[in-house]
């Protein structure tokens, strides 16, 4: 595997292991992150963690499953994108390893937003990332799928590919993210998500984020989470 940026990944790994997940870290610079993610966050002007990020990032960076709830606008996107970048980076992931992370979003618009944040904070990484949301031909999407490390998708379109694209390798997948899991359920995507998850390896990290803690979300969680860390942020009174 290729060496990256002269970064001592073993040392980074040790710092992650030593990290106290309840330390309530306030700044990105106090988290054990790769130089290139730190640089991407800095260039995007992210310095201070939001509450949900502070509560969930240490657990997520340690590879734990997460069930996170915090209202819209609280910063959930970075709570899963930073661990996606870091956990694949520490594994020296390349597209030769197949798809490393899959992020499922309820709508095309939200998927595009996530993808844009990923491009911003991940700008110094060498990962290939793609959107699978329809709107271009299935064939065209198909050809690019096999070369992706990270995909942001909508459930229906993703399932279409999993059923039809032959050399789409998901057996190595390390991380699954369901963003706006409550909306995914409300929009009736449960069976699509179930079918997607059936294609994925059971040994993986799963993170679910939503604006509310609903019964429906825990139905989804029952399918895919292992000893999850429950993280929620309530509005101050
Ligand atoms: P949510 O998914 O919880 O609705 P987002 O991830 O979309 O929230 O973030 C909401 C807004 O807050 C975005 O404009 C984002 O750029 C900004 N934001 C997120 N995290 C931080 C941070 N650590 N520092 C400053 N702004 C942030
Ligand atoms: Mg969001």
From TrEMBL:
Residues annotated as domain DEAD-box RNA helicase Q: 26-54
Location of the motif Q motif: 26-54
Subcellular location: Nucleus, Nucleolus
Domain Helicase ATP-binding: 57-231
Superkingdom of source: Eukaryota
Domain description: The Q motif is unique to and characteristic of the DEAD box family of RNA helicases and controls ATP binding and hydrolysis.
Record-stated family: Belongs to the DEAD box helicase family.
Role description: RNA helicase.
Protein name stated in the entry: ATP-dependent RNA helicase
Residue range from the parent sequence: 26 to 262 of 800
